[in-house]
Every structure is written in structure tokens, then in C-alpha cells.
Amino acid sequence: MPHHEPQGPSHPLTRKSFLRGLAAVGVAPLLPGLLPTAAEAASAAASGFPLVRDGAAVELYVDPADDPAVLRAAGDLRSDVERVTGIRPELRQTLPESAALLVVVGTIGASPVVDRLVADGRLNVSRVKGRWEASVSQVVERPLPGVDRALVIAGSDRRGTIYGIYDTSERIGVSPWYWWADVPVEHRDTVTVPAGPLKRYEPSVRYRGVFINDEQNLTTWSHRTQEPDKNIGPETYRRVFELLLRLKANYLWPAMHPYSDFFNKHRENPELADHYGIVVGSSHPEALLRNGVHEWAPWAEEHQGTDGSLPVYDYTVNPGVISDYWRARARQNAAYESSWTLGMRGLHDSALETKYATTIPEKVVVMNDIIADQRRILAEEVGAGAEPQIFIPYKEVLDLYNAGVRVPDDVTLIWPDDNHGNMRQLPDDAEREREGGNGIYYHLSYWGRPKSYLWLDTTQPAKVWQELRRVYEHGADRMWIFNVGDLKSIETGLSFAMDMAWDVDRWGADEVQDFLAEWAGRQFGHRYGREIAAIRTEYYRLAAELRPEFIAPGILSVIHHGDEAGRRMAAYDRLLGRARAVGAELPEAYRDAFYELVEYPVHGAYLMQLKYYWADRNALAVRQGRGAGTNRFADLAHAAHAEEAALTARYNTEVAGGKWSGIVNPYPSQIPKAPGRPTVTRVTRQETSGLGVAAEGNDTGTARPLSFSSVTRDRRFVDVFNTGFVALTWAAEASHRWVRMSETGGSLTEQTRLWVEIDWARVPGGAHDATVTVTGAGQRVDVPLRVRDDGDRRRARGFVEAHGYVSIDAAHADRRVARGGARWRVVRGLGRRTAAMEAAPTTAAPITGDFATRAPELRYRVRFSSTGTFPVTVFRLPSLDERGHRRLALALDDRPVTVLSGQAIATGNRGDAWARQVEDGVEKLTAPVTVAEPGEHVLRLFMVDPAIVVDQIVIDTGGRPATYLAPPESYHPRFNPAPDPA
């Protein structure tokens, strides 16, 4: 289990307390407002190791026999010290004759100085030596003749040493995102690091990396700003490799689309990767490091048939030509540390082509032959160094694998998600015992069916936590590869994924926001960390309701639940206000980084959906026969689109002095685009006026009464509008004194929204009918109200029915009952509300009977005023198991239990159940319950399959309108004592 562990004569500190200690002595990353006091600096100098003091920098020493990747990374530490202090240390490869202080960087087994300290017992390398990518940083007194004191950074292998180096860089205040997100480096005259020893044990996951994919924007930016003669080349990859190492990653699938240069086109690329210590592999359609998009056509031209025909990329037709094609790359890259993808798919991410194998069993035989051929090539051309070898059962290849493809035991199985963050299948007991182990291919960005999300980082970190925790518990710990699209905009999500890949136990189910706070604090300062974390959490929550890339006309209601879409836009507006408030407080140097990491995602997501909100209001206005107001909504929709375009233009032309030209574009030309300018309707101006009224809950008119309950203390809207363009005078009057209105009339050219609520202190008990009458332009419209005094809500012990439904946030269970070694746990920051409930552990055995005595249970008290048989809809978060089931069960009181079965298979078809649930972010499972008598009852949810996640529960007792989102949560004396009145 990997983690940092400071060691000393007393008991070990925790990771978090250690970081707090670093901050106290000024040796954590320097954060605005947290510069150490003079006394703290003096304390740090006495107990730590100064890298820069009194205007002089301590020299860095690396043995020339060490790996070149270590020497190169030491050069980055040299530059980082200069970034912090303005003073550049000397980097030397010979030992000084005498020195008061020296930094020694070396790899165990490759650095004689380090090896001598280990042999003499001067350097503590327990649980470091012989491990994978582990390191220790420790101050050693009199380590060498003539050297009084040295900071030794030693790794178990070359990357272990490199990570120790970058640990030091981050501890002195250089963010891994200093270049890729323009996070400034705070200046200090004195820099001190702890004496140690500080150990970084081997990671939870051996290979941790990214797939640069669907990279048109990155290609555009690279061509404009890095290499005008290339479309992603070594200058760009140099920056990518450094970022990966600073994030403690070690692995890359490079860009592969037609608009990018393929990785091996520029021979500097694989050489540079090896020089940095990065393992290079290739994606599921790119066997043995071959890029079919670019490389197959020229190869086919050079290997025409005797009749001049071009060979096709079909192993049942041209096995020899294809085998030679793979062999050439294996020979070419044999000297580099590579990952070799086995198997085969079609060119450019298309399905496997097998002209002479049409059935699944026949295709299985072909795939087995392909793997055997590729293994033979690697043995002959690369030898023992041909590892890791991986097999990726992606899309149709998963069907072949499950049908009998034989993957050699030393090959790593890479399990894919469904492209939307839900793992399709996890290793079984036999697969977990494989020598090659298991890994995952996981999407933080995606282009394809049913919808693409490429523009912004919109996957909740808590969702990533839940799935990654699940895969790790199922033994998939050899390789984690994350699809990050263009890389930019995914900074927060990628940082979290890499943090988990290094230490999967560091963050618990209720600690994801702690990661966000710590991460934001490292970028912008501790004083801003919690608020930025709260902003990002709400941003992700809103994206979980509906990704900004998924918005489309008519998804959200503009007439129900106080204007469902409008309420959501109000939440975005509040969020943007919070983000701008933080941005205004930050020092000027942090403004670019804040725009990139916080403000642009929030503002961009807001505008992407705002324009569709106004377009939906425009469409409603047309149906309602509005006049000038119809055109007003059209103007607002197009204005929001223009503002969004200007926001993106600022990113590409002004931020960081235009450094990111072309890097962000919601509408790239060659791949699926985010929703563009919405279609709106305008009406021709008529010199007329007329009164129109539409009450909440009605598409047109006022037929559906406004519903009010003393439990929820609601407010409802009435839209009063002009059917023409000439101003009119209107007035509103209530039938009862206890009906309150936000306004009672005035002059109207377009429209106004009148809010109605009840003065409950003056309402007699029982149910009442009331009316709001609106007059104007010689017309009169009555708006009916249904007002119900449901009694003293303070006497309720649970959720209370009102307005024909009960709406429950699943995390608000009155009681959780653990059984059989399994339980329901709260995962904060997950789902459409503040938290969701997950059945854990994810490896628990399914429960298929005797639920009341064997299954973990959630209990919710509900007070019903209605009786009858009602549908209960459970909003579960999508999760899959293509070799199992996704089930839960429910019951009311002690009545019989009903098992609900969710979608377990990713079909990949547009418009089917799987497509709907990944677009919505939830799957709605429904079963009936019967309420025989009014009063308090207990709704019970049971785990059937582990890792099932429940977000919300809605009981429809009659009249609940069909809406995209669940209704606002019902009254509960503890969890929701003051329901949202809108």
C-alpha cells in the first residue's frame, strides 16, 4: 500500500498532519498568504535542509553513471529552484572536494555514492530498495569526505529517483501545472526542505498514464505555438512527458487521429520518451505500436499484390503482409521501454474485419492466431524486454474474449469502461490470479455514441473515485490508462485520477472534496482551497445532472417545479458569482491559472446551457402566442451564444498572453461538437397588444391549478405577457387576503413573472380553493389555486407527501442497517445531489433472497396523506457488469420485497436504455408499493448486487408531472426542514 511516511524518533505522523507541519515551517508548496514568519523560517532552517540561503544555492550532484532520465530530471530541479528563488544551482557530475552542503541525487544500484551510504547503514532504504518506483529523501550528516551535510534523494529505480526529485520541486512551491495551467511560482529568498527521511513507497498501480485522443484542438494549438512544421511533435511531447512525471505518471498512449502526426513519424519522439523515462504504448486499434490511420496505407502501397492490388487490413486475407507490418515496428522500437498492444481491430478505431471468419467462434480462432503471431514477433525482435504486453477487449473484442479468446497468462488484460465512466466488466477470480494481472482503460473525455464530451472536465471526481476503488478491489492494479482528450481542461480530473493511481487508499468515500481543497490550495493558496473546492463540487454536481455538452432543446422543463430549467440556471448564476468573487480576491499573478482551472469551466458550462434555456423559453413563447417577449427570448439565446464565443476567444487570445491559441474550442471542425447556436423563432412586429397568462405547470393557459402545501411552504409563478408589441396596463388581484403576490400590476410591453405564495399564519385549517385574477387590455384570466393545510409539519418524523409525490435524496436515510459483512456507505459529491449511497464492499456476494435478514438495508420514514398503489422510482447511478447483474430491492414496511433489475450491459446503440442512462447520468427503476392507510410508513431499500449506487427516490402519489430532474426534496424535519420554496 503506497504512501508517504515521514520517519523520526517519535511515532509516525499521518500524511495530512505531515503536510500541515510542512506548511508551518514554510517547506510545503508556497501558497499566497502562507509565507512563514521569521521564527518559523528560523525553525525550518535549524531542523531542515536549506536549498537556497543567504543568496547562495546548494549544488546538485548526480553520478554520470546514473540513468540519463535521472540527470535530465535533476536539471528540472535546478530550474525549479531558480523559479522559486531566482538563483540557479550548479548541477555537477563530479563530487566536490569540500562542501558544507550538497544535494545528492541517485538511483540505488546506479549511483556509487548512494550505494555506499546504503551499505554503511547511513541511508534508510527499507521498503524502498528493490521496489517499483519507490524513493527516500533524507539528510545525512558527513556523507562523504569533505561534505558536512547532504540531502540525499534516492530511488529504487530510475523513475523512483525522478519522482523523489519532483517531490522536492513540489515541496518548494512548483506545481506540476506550473506550465500547463500557468500556476505561478511564489518567490522566496530562502528555501528549506525537511530533514526526513521521507519515503514514497511503491504505487498502488504499476503503470499509470494517459491517452491523448480526439486531439484536434491540441493539434491546432501545437501547430500554432510549438512546432509550425509539425502536428504534435517532440516539442509538444517534451512538455507532456514532463507533466506526466510531475503527476507521478509513467505511461502514454500518444495522439493517433488523422489530423495529428503519428508518434513514430518523428523518431525524436520515442527517443525522447526513453530519455524522460516514459513508457510508450498504443491504444486498442494500434497493435504493436502501429498507427493504422497513417501507416497502413503507405505500407500497403509498398506491398502490392502481384496483380497490383492493395492488401486490405484483414488478417484472414493478408496475414503475411500484416505480420511483416507489425514486425517492422517491433524491430524499430525494440530498444525503448514500450508497452506492446496485442490483438487487432479495424483501422482507425473500427471493428475487426474478417472476410473469411463470419461467426463468433471463427473470429475467436482468428484472434488466437493473431496473438500467437504477435507473440512470436516480439520474442524474435524484442526478446525478454517486450513487456508489458497488453490485451484490450474493447467494444466487439470483449464479445470475442468472453467467447474464448486465449490470452497468454503473462499478458495484462486491460478492461475498458463504457466510454462514459462505467466499467463494463471486471476480472473474475481466475483472471485475478493471472501473472500479467489486470488494468483498465477509463474515459475522462470521449468522442462517440451516444454523445461526446470533449470540451470540459465534467466527470465527478467522486464518480471516478467510486469506479477506481471498485476496479482496484477487483484486482485491476497493473495499469490504469485515462483518455484525456486534448489534455487541457481535464487538469483537475487528471490530477485526481493520478493521485488515486499512486495511492488508492489516500482518499475515502467522504473525502473527495478534501482532495479538491488540497489540490486547489496547492494551486491558489490554502485560504482559497475550501471555497474553490466547493465551487468545483457544485460545478461537477450540475454536470452530473446534465453535462453541458449534452444539452439539447426541450430536455429540462420550463413550466414545472418552479421552472426546473430556470432553477438550474439560477444555481449556475450563483456559482459563477462565487467563482468571480474568488477570482477578484486572488493576486494578479494567479488570474490566468484561475481562468483556466475554475472560471472558464464554470462560465462556459453556464453559457452553453443558458442559451438553450432562453431558446426553450422562446419555443414556449411561440406556443403561448407571446408577441414582443418571443423576440426577447430569441435575442437572449443568441446573446448567450455570442458571450460563450467571446469567453472562448479570450482563452485562446488573451490568457497567458495568447499562449493557448486554439487549445480550447467547443466546436472543432472534424470531431463531434458541443451544442452550437440554438434555433429560435421570431415573430413579426404587430402594432397590437393583448393579455396572455400562463400559470406554472401549464404549457399554455391556467387549467392546472397552482398547488400549495403548508408542509413545503411553496411559491409558484404566473407568467403575464403581451400577445402584441404595444404596451398594456395589467392588474392582479387575489381572492383571499392570505394569498400574497410579488406584484399587483403595471405597464407591460413584453412579459413579467408574478410569484404567488401563501401567508400560512392566516390560512384556516383544511383544503381551500383560491384564485388570482389577472386583467388587462379588456381581458380577464382566472388562475386557480389549491391550498392545503397539511398540519403541523414539526410533528412529522420523516419525509412528508405533498403535491402528489414524495421526493427523497438517497443519502438522507433515517437508518442504515449493515448485514453479512456488507453495508451502504455515503459517497459525498456523487450524483445529482450532495451525496449518493453505494453498496459496499464492491466485492460482496450478491443477495438473492431473505433480504430482510441478509441484505444491507436503507430505511426512510415517509408520512403519506394518500392511499393506493403508487410507483416508486429509484434513481440509480449507471454501473455495469456484463457477466452479472445490477439489482436492488425495495419494500414498504413489512410487505413483500420487489427486486429491480438495472441495465448491466453497454450496448453501444444510440437511443436505447444504456444510451439514455449514460446521457442522463441515472437509470430510473420503478416498482409499485401499496399504501393501505395514511400515516407514517417505512420505505426499505436492499442491496442485491454490490457496488449499486442510489441517488434519489421518488414516490408518485398522483399528479406528479414528468420532468427530467426529480422534484425538489420533500420536507423532512432533520434533513430538509426548510424546503426550497421555488
Automatic annotation (TrEMBL):
InterPro entries: GH115, GH115_C, GH115_sf, Hex-like_dom2, TAT_signal
Keyword terms of this UniProt record: Hydrolase
GO molecular function per UniProt: hydrolase activity
Residues covered by the Gylcosyl hydrolase 115 C-terminal domain: 798-969
Domain of life, source organism: Bacteria
GO BP annotation list: carbohydrate metabolic process
Protein name (Swiss-Prot/TrEMBL): Gylcosyl hydrolase 115 C-terminal domain-containing protein
Organism whose genome encodes this protein: Streptomyces dysideae
